Predict the structure of NAD-dependent succinate-semialdehyde dehydrogenase.
Amino acid sequence: MSTAVKETWNHNWIDGRQAASSATLEVFDPSNGQEIGRIPDLESERVTEAVDAASAAFPEWSVLPAQARAAFLEEWASLLVREKKTLGELLSREQGKPLTEATGEIEGTAAIIRWYAEESKRAYGEIIPASNPGQQLLVYREPVGPVALITPMNFPAATVARKVAPALAAGCTVVLKPAETTAMTAIAMFGYLQQTGIPRGVANLVTGVPSRIGAQLMADFRIRKLSFTGSTQVGKTLMAQAAVTVKRVSLELGGNSPVIVFPDADLDKAAAQIVGNKFENCGQVCNGINLAYVHRDVHEALLGKLLPLVRNLKAGAGSEPGTDIGPLINDRALAKVERLVNDAVAKGAKVLTGGERPSGEAYAGGSFYLPTLLDGVTSEMDLTREEIFGPVLPILVFDTESEVVKRANATRYGLAAYVFTSDFARIHRLIQKLESGNIAVNGTSLAYAQAPFGGIKESGVGREGGRHGLEEFSVLKYVALTTG
């Protein structure tokens, strides 16, 4: 790739202008390990400039009518749809997911932005019945202030939209720090946002060493809220740092999401849905299935349906026609998956398909791992306690409903859970008993723009999506007004 192309996204966005740095970070194509671009490793002084810009722009942006803010979001979404082919190719190249998935993510990103453009017009306050004559009790909903947004690598467009769109819609100004491995997609998206004519300083983007930038943003008292998606370990660190200046936080963290298949389930539907969920984005999905609990009575039958589906998944570069599953994001992620599978096999798990890196020239230099189905998995294996975040589906057997609920809840995580059953009474029992922020019944789709998404326990704080996601970026101001 030419130097000119590599430098295309080697800038940040501060105060409506491109911002560069003498220090840079390399971006690699995970399908072959080759450098495809560079991004700034921004100096602390420039990060401060981004906060300066967001702080200066906040007073004017926060009082702009909701319809005016919505117009900028609507135009941004239209530009992303217009450029979805270019953006999809960029996203696929730096993240690794198949081109069809990448292009679909851009379309979904635009839909999220449009939803919040509309929802911005419905940030209602309240009038409370007063206790005294000549008095009114009023509750105003106001934007929290300049906010810091930190996004992960697995959905480099959609997670940007799920944070930036509601923040801007609520009247906040933003400083976005995207994942350094997939920042070019966010940089390109912000370029189109600037093309809408949005006021300078409203939307800023910085890149660099995550721990340094994160700590700096958390230490700045002018940043009034953090919204972070990533690992539980990093989330805890940021939460502690945010406490120093009492920032509000929204954290979407790790998961250990179970799927539970009962004997009365539609096994064909369950198998197709489970494989679709588990192997999307090479298993790098925060609410992706981590463990499959299958009732003993249908264990062999479900395996018979899962195995051909998993075997038929084609691993390859995202740009290759027919690719179902791309590479993991980097060698570190690959090493973790290998460690977890090797530990499971050493402790008695059986590899039904996959369980290794693919061989051949087409995979040379890439961080590929074959779609893997494991049977005979037990709770002593590390992958039952750690988030796999890779293309591995472990099968565990259970006998009773009470047993599987206890096992599914025996984790410090609580992000998502999936249930397949036709028993209406059981559905309602499990909704009440499963310790999870999100539950899908007889399906595996959870992320919708209009619905609140988030975890409990060590899977997070707060919600993204729906009106709840907009409210996360607002504060309440109560006024007791005496008029007589």
